[in-house]
Amino acid sequence: MEIDEKTVRRIAHLARIRVTDAEAKALKKELSGILDWAKQLNEVDTSTAEPMTRVTPMTLKRRTDVVNDGEMADAIVKNAPMSANHFFLVPKVVE
Amino acid sequence: MSDLAKLTLAEARAGLAARRFSAVELTKALLAAIQQGNDALNAYVLTTPEIALKQARDSDKRLAKGKARPLEGLPIGIKDLYCTKGLRTTACSNILGEFIPTYESTVTQNLWDAGAVMLGKLNCDEFAMGSSNETSRFGPVVSPWRRHGSNVALVPGGSSGGSSAAVAADLCLAATATDTGGSIRQPAAITGTVGVKPTYGRCSRWGIVAFASSLDQAGPIAKTVRDAAIMLRHMASADPKDSTSVDAPVPDYEAGLSDGVKGLKVGVPKEYRVDSMPGEIEDLWRRGIAWLRAGGATVREVSLPHTKYALPAYYIVAPAESSSNLARYDGVRFGAREPGADLIGTYEATRAAGFGAEVRRRVLIGTYVLSAGYYDAYYLKAQKVRTLIRRDFDTAFGEVDVLITPTTPGPAFGIGEVLGDPIQMYLNDIFTVPVNMAGLPGISVPAGLSSEGTPLGLQLIGPPFGEATLFRAAQVIEDAAGRFSPPEAWWLTRRPGK
User: What is the reported pLDDT for B110?
Assistant: First the structure.
């Protein structure tokens, strides 16, 4: 068993997902099962392998560093759950 | 009228060109089929009849003027992972709420520019995470296929289960789909349809809801190999808005379809012969090999030694990327919001309410394997294994032109039969995941029926940008195996409307 309930709570907080006590218990079992299963990767000798950073050998394309769109504040806030005057509204962050 | 819905994309194209029927008649036939059949199948989560008929009228005008575009007047369905301007797009997740994109994905824009007609948005697993289409916020899709003498509802595969079911049930002529670990090929295989996962970079990912960015690719599900070739040609493009899309011209995949496989070197990866493989899957595989050999291909065994590690490596890499991609769903800028005591509380409440069980599981796994102290042991290790998987394929493609494998370890299962066991569900993608890990193209083509009377598919895998060869070889299998349609259209439960 890789993961205890405390760890589940810690990563749930890192992932910004609230979990109930019952959920943490169930997740402990599920996540440990998946990670135990993934442990078989330790059988593989990877001493000659670089970690893959791109799946196809290509250099990242570049474009000219110029503004090519903008002036779309309406579109950007259109789907916001709460907004005012082209600002997103959130609960108070700074006292 | 409903016979028009049964046409293939190529047949419909020919019928429109010869003016045997109009685009409006064709579109009305498909809309009627959806109206009669969607209650039972749940393939569409949004239908767009007004848009479809407007596009069809426009197509008829162009056809009359002799100015038809390549897909003029052909009605298709769109997986709900593709952003469609002005039309609700949800990735079948509650967290997107009633999100209405203010932009169009590049792939769908390409299709509309080619003259295609939009029937609606198709159901899928939440954020494309699943192999059965059971994790959708809109509920499961039911396959049009049933086992011999049984009414048990079967899954259409996933994540593109709405796409596979709609194509198999003649509720669209073809559909878009996406494939991160098998989400095009697995549903195609178990519904008797053709599914193509192109080379990474062939289709733009811009405007498609991201799951795992180094693995995601758009592709079609269609009724025939030819239809899939037509669709892919008009989905693919180089796109300045996706820096991983490839600046290579898109070939006319249809042109070489009947060239056959004479002289083609076909590899059979021995590691795909897993111990638990059912006899009927082995038989299917053997038949596929024999068909290619009869067509003049030479066949040899090849080795992909790291095959068995592809699935566990995938279940590190894909959740890691998804935990990062899904960080954007915070209840602030778009989608649903669940208020909390403060900002962090709002994030946590929003994401707890908005993500389903499987998505939550994967985000948490991803967060864990990327967290301090575990990154090297899990994520870096998996990325190294991924390099070895790619190396295996590179070596194999030094010897052969194409690989043949089964697409799935078995036929469609019943709704609810596997849902409680994540790893059992993941094993559905055992033959498809390595292809994504290496960024290669793969196609699933129907090849036979199981002892239960449900479809099974064979997968062909090619080197990067080897799609044309895959289509050519798949055509040989389709010619030998024939096409597979559900024996009875039981889902047409509602009488046609006005």
Answer: 98
Give the whole-angstrom CA distance, residue B474 versus residue B224.
10
Q: Look at residue B2 in the predicted model and tell me its pLDDT.
A: 54
Are A15 and B364 a contacting pair at CB < 8 A? yes
Q: Using CA atoms, how far apart are residues B496 and B498, in angstroms rounded to an integer?
A: 7
Is the CATH number 2.60.40 carried by domain A5-41? no
pLDDT in the model for residue B1: 42
- CATH architecture of the domain B2-258+474-481 equals Alpha-Beta Complex (3.90)
Q: How many CB atoms lie within 10 A of CB A60?
A: 7
Unique residue bearing structure tokens 């090929």? B185
CB nearest to B388's CB, from A33, A46, A93? A46
Contact call for A14 and B367, based on CB within 8 A: yes
User: What's the pLDDT at B211?
Assistant: 97
Closest chain B C-alpha to A57 CA, distance in angstroms: 10
CA B208 to chain centroid, in Å, comes to 13
The domain limits of chain B are 2-258+474-481
Low-confidence stretches of chain B (pLDDT beneath 70): 1-2, 495-498
Taking CB atoms and an 8 Å limit, are B99 and A37 in contact across chains?
no
Question: Tell me, what's the pLDDT at B84?
Answer: 98
Residues 262-291 of B with CB under 8 A from A: none
* Residues of chain B found within 8 Å of residue A7, distances taken between Cβ atoms: 368
pLDDT tens per residue across span A15-68: 999 999 999 999 999 999 999 999 999 999 999 999 998 888 778 888 899 998
Structure tokens at B457: 């598919």
- Subunit contact B214:A54, Cβ cutoff 8 A: yes
- Asked if residue B433 lies in contact with residue B182, where contact means CB atoms within 8 angstroms, the answer is yes
Taking contacts as CB-CB distances below 8 angstroms, the residues of chain A near B334 are 79-81
Chain B neighbors of A33, CB-CB under 8 A:
422-423
**Whether the Cβ atoms of residue B433 and residue B269 lie closer than 8 Å to each other:** no
Q: Which of A14, A41, A49 sits opposite B312 (nearest CB)?
A: A41
Q: What is the pLDDT of residue A59?
A: 81
The ipTM, to two decimals, is 0.95
- The reply to whether B397 touches chain A by the CB within 8 Å rule is no
